Amino acid sequence: MWSKVFYFTMVPMVYAAVAIFIGGLIFKLAVVLFSKRFKGSLATYPKRLPRPVGVAVEALAVPSAFKKDKVFWLFILAFHISFFLLFIGHLELIREFKWIQLIPHEVFLGAGAVGIVLIISVLYFLFRRFRSPWREISVPEDFFILILLFLTMFLGSHLHLSARFYAGGGAFDIPIEAYREYLSSLLALKPVVPDGIAYSPHYVLVALHIFLANLVLILIPFSKVVHMVFAFLSLDLKRK
Q1: pTM for this model (two decimals)
Q2: I want to staple 217 with a disulfide (CB 3.0 to 4.6 A). Which of 11, 17, 53, 211 is the partner?
């Protein structure tokens, strides 16, 4: 029974989560594109920078958050930078990319620091919502998605740190080749769960990590986190 649950989490649920994620984003985009047109302009002034540059600066540097709460702004930057590095690390779990390895490094970048920064940032965003005035404008899904993110990143960091720093090494270190075989097989639509993962003492943690990541993917299009996709569109609209 448990082997079937493990396989379902590692293969069919991954495909289902990706399909729901993409389908949900397409649905949200369609709702926006086919919604009733707003008469007038939503532009904000003054427009200090050209449109493409201004959109990029607002999306990446978040100056509006800096003006309101510098601590919040610092955690936003830390989260976004760390998440980008985490994304690169997961790309390297699919296969080796020479352009990423221009400066030779072990997978993941940061030797565990990236995951720790993400965990601390998510905890800050979570506990911030227990304070006024954010508590009054929060809904259960806001807490739920942050808790899911925390658990996903905590388990991922545990897997990475145990592999990198566990003194005994050996069975606790799932080889990167096993991850690459698994992820590349998913992309090739010929899924395989290699023995390096299936028979590792960490296989339960790997399955939990992927299970939680699947839930995060499924929920993103239907939560406030979807702003990561529509941020550039909304900022562009403000400059029309």
Answers
A1: 0.84
A2: 17
